[in-house]
Design goal:
Strand order of the largest sheet: 1-2-3-4-5
Strand content: 15-25%
CATH superfamily: Alpha/Beta hydrolase fold, catalytic domain
Organism: Brevifollis gellanilyticus
Helix content: 25-40%
Number of strands: 5
Largest sheet: 5 strands, parallel
Protein name: Uracil-DNA glycosylase-like domain-containing protein
Number of helices: 7
Radius of gyration: 15 Å
Length: 185
C-alpha cells in the first residue's frame, strides 16, 4: 500500500511548517516508518524550522488566528489544489489533526474521492464539525475543556491536558492501533 502520514495543526508561529521537537519525537516513537512521514506540518511544504522555545500565549493567539482565517473561502482556494496534488498519489493518508487541525482539514473542502482515502487521528480536536473522511478517531483529555466544548463525545478519553497529547503514552498507543487498522483494512 502506498501510504503517507503527516501533521495538520494550527501554526503556533505564523507561516511556519517546521515540526516541533515534540512532533519529531512523536514521529520517531510511533510504529509508522520514518519514510512514510511528511517532513513538514500543513500545508506540507518547507518554510523555516520551528523556533524553540516558543511563548505559549503568542502560540495560542496565532492558532486562533489560523483557525479563523481557515474559515474564509480564500483558505481553500489557496491550499486545495496543492494539497490535492500532494495527497492524490497515495492509497491511504493518515493525518494527525491536533487542536484546530481538524477545522483546517474541514475547511480545505477537498474532493470526495480524495477524502475517501484520508484517515484522521484528531487529538484534542477543536472544530465545528466532524470530518468527511474515510475514517476518523477522536481522542481527548478528560480535562481538555476546550476540545470538550467543541466535541462533547470522543472515541477515547484519558488524563491529558490540551497541550500534552504528544507526550501521553495513550496517544501513541491509540495512533499505533489506528495505523495498524488502516494498513489491514
Amino acid at each position: 500500500m502506498n501510504f503517507i502520514a503527516g501533521f495538520i495543526t494550527g501554526h503556533s508561529v505564523p507561516g511556519c511548517t517546521g515540526l516541533s521537537r515534540e512532533q519529531v519525537d512523536f514521529q520517531r516513537r510511533s510504529e509508522i516508518p520514518p519514510e512514510c512521514w511528511l517532513p513538514h506540518n500543513f500545508p506540507w511544504h518547507e518554510t523555516f524550522p520551528f523556533p524553540e522555545p516558543f511563548r505559549l500565549l503568542s502560540a495560542s493567539v496565532n492558532n486562533v488566528r489560523h483557525y479563523l482565517r481557515s474559515r474564509k473561502a480564500v483558505f481553500a482556494e489557496q491550499h486545495r489544489e496543492a494539497v490535492t496534488q500532494l495527497l492524490t498519489p497515495y492509497d491511504a493518508v493518515l493525518l494527525l489533526a491536533g487542536s484546530c487541525g481538524l477545522e483546517l482539514f474541514n475547511n480545505l473542502e477537498l474532493p470526495n474521492e480524495l477524502r475517501g482515502k484520508i484517515h484522521i487521528f484528531a487529538y484534542g480536536p477543536v472544530s465545528r464539525r466532524l470530518p468527511k473522511a474515510a475514517s476518523h478517531l477522536l481522542v481527548q483529555g478528560r480535562h481538555d475543556w476546550l476540545s470538550r466544548f467543541y466535541h462533547p463525545r470522543a472515541d477515547h478519553r484519558y488524563p491529558c491536558p490540551h497541550m500534552g497529547y504528544l507526550e501521553a503514552p495513550e496517544t501513541r498507543r491509540l495512533l499505533n492501533e489506528y495505523y495498524q487498522r488502516i494498513l489491514h483494512s
